[in-house]
Amino acid sequence: MDDPRKRSLAGLAFQITYVWVIKAVFHTNWLRAFIAWLLAMVIEVIILFLLSAVGLVALHSLV
Hints:
By secondary structure, the protein is mostly helical. 89% of the residues lie in helices and 0% in strands.
């Protein structure tokens, strides 16, 4: 079976890598990279809701 600790470590490694890439690409410190990561998550959620709304409107127009 899959060990839940491995999944949590993989998720943590992914998040650290995500912030590290932001830090490396924009040549900034860790705090600013973390803030940019938080902003990116907020923007992703907003886009998710906008695309979901467009999809629901498109489905409604087909009915």
